[in-house]
Amino acid sequence: MACPSLTRERSFGAPLSLLCATMPPRFAPPHRSTCSLWRRSVTSLSYVPLYQWIDGNKLSGDGRETSDVLNPFDGTVLGSMPHATEADLQAALESSQRAFKQWRKVPAWERSAIILKATNLIRERLEQFATILTLEVGKPLAEARMELNLTVESMVWAGEEAKRIYGRTVESRLPHGRAIISREPIGPVAAFAPWNVPALLTGRKIAAALAAGCSMIIKPSEETPATCLMIAEAFADAGLPAGVLNVVLGEPSMISKTLISSPIIRKVSFTGPTPVGKQLAALAAQQVTPVTMELGGHAPVIVCDDANIDAVLAFSVPNKYFNAGASCIAPTRFYVQDGVYDAFVEKFTAAASAIKVGNGLDPETRMGPLANGRRLQAMERLIADAVSHGGTITTGGKRIGDQGFLYEPTVLVNVPESAQIMNDEPFGPVAIISRFTNVEEAIEKANRLPFGLAAYAFTSTTARANLLADCLESGMVGINTYYFGMPEAPFGGVKQSGYGSENGTEGIDAYLVTKFANYA
Fold it and tell me: Do residues 323 and 222 share a domain?
């Protein structure tokens, strides 16, 4: 019997790489624009100048240290990124504090209107944004457009939710008294976003904080500064007051230490690897500053022998190699039951080997390069270690060419749990397929690691589905789906995958504090 959830997946729960085809019309790129800038063809667009965005001013590299931003496809230099100085960071902190005092007083409906206007501008500029995103990260244009569509959807939801930040009253114990519980913005926020999904992971932080009435200083990755700056420009063009949103670029350690150590910062939001998250959480603890941590994962996938294997493969392969595997919720450790293991490995290998790898600007490309040289080195190290422990490569396992960071989609089998890749998140285009006999064994293997961001399971049996959903130790569990892209639902992990959530009402709550006022 076909699993109903699998047959429905194509209509509303499609894997990320297929979402472009199912986006509502309001999220589609415009066919025309009144602005000549956005009418230019994609091929004629180029990288944009980089700058610090502080208190509404563009601060270029004059007198500042700079570093190159590289195109991961061929290693060419896209642009020169200026590094924030201590003086820049102090200016950002002061402007953020000053702007917060005014922004928190802006009525929620006006905050919402500015956020929604910014999303409209992003829609109008989507083709340029997508091209810049592809140049920075390397992902195919179709994936870049899809990411921007999801970014807009997440920002729209946060903007609308600004109107629904409610308090409550309770019955007073005093004659003619009032007891009121209100929700107030927590204060200036320091946010740090990674390179792998630079539009979504910056856009949803910004929109949620602004919706709550907070100001924000955000530091994007050194690999993807332009994507964040273009989102900031959309907010500025939408009428966001100067200082409410500042963007600082440069050396991560100096920036994070300066911002988080400042008493001006009342909240920290971080998305990135677990080791870095631990350092920032310790730094924030010195100021008793609340932190939202969305950290690494190593997502298990349990494929039971009663699942529709062809349907599972049709969803699994695109999701595994989406963004060249650089996703914190990417399916990575596939545990496949004995009865379907051999067929699953054979078909997964064939599908992975057929993926066209190349320039993300080429419409024929289905997987772009790794985003940087660090990931290339990590892949080579992890796969070599897996083979040395007895693992077998069924496809891939090699760098493509000698320029840029192209790497083959890779499948590993027979990898023992002692291998490093079974314990450390690969964050790259490699699937590890292991067999299991009974579901309890698979659950134990899935829960073995200290990570718990995303987990997946495929089965057509209701009892098994309930057992897996209940027993998998993860902040998010997908049963017969890989889709977690709903802005109305919380996104976050447990164990060493972090704490707190983005998206959903929980994502707005992260930027609010509760006040109880008792009137006699």
Answer: no
Helix (H), strand (E) counts: the chain: 16, 22
Under 8 Å CB-to-CB from 192, ≥6 apart: which residues?
218, 219, 252, 256, 268, 269, 270, 271, 272, 280
In a domain, 184, yes or no: yes
Looking up tokens 């130790």 gives: 473
Tell me which residues are annotated as active site. Answer: 294, 328
Number of domains in the chain: 2
pLDDT at residue 26 in the model: 29
The answer as to whether 3 is a domain residue is: no
Tokens representing 343 are: 């067929």
Q: Give backbone dihedrals phi and psi of 49, rounded to 5 degrees, phi first.
A: -65, 150
Q: What pLDDT score was predicted for residue 45? A: 55
Pairing of strands 77-82, 451-452: unpaired
Going by their DSSP bridges, the two strands 430-436 and 178-185 should be labelled as unpaired
Whether 83 contacts 251, CB under 8 Å: yes
Q: Do 268 and 256 form a contact (C-beta atoms < 8 A)?
A: no
Tens digits of residue pLDDT in 456-508: 999 999 999 999 999 999 999 999 999 998 999 999 999 999 999 999 999 99
Q: What is the tens place of the pLDDT at every residue in 49-77?
A: 999 999 999 998 888 999 999 999 999 99
Among candidate residues 369, 411, 406, 409, the one with its CA nearest the CA of residue 387: 411
**Residue closest to 95 by CA, chosen among 234, 201, 248:** 248
Average pLDDT over residues 2-8: 32
List residues bridging with 498 in a β-sheet: 294
Contact 13, 487 (CB under 8 A): no
Spacing of C-alpha 114 from chain mean position: 23
- In degrees, to the nearest 5, what angle opens at C-alpha 173 toward C-alphas 167 and 177? 65
User: Residues 166-203: pLDDT tens digits?
Assistant: 999 999 999 999 999 999 999 999 999 999 999 999 99
192 and 307 within one domain: no
Same domain for 130 and 75, yes or no, is: yes
How is residue 395 annotated by DSSP?
A: E
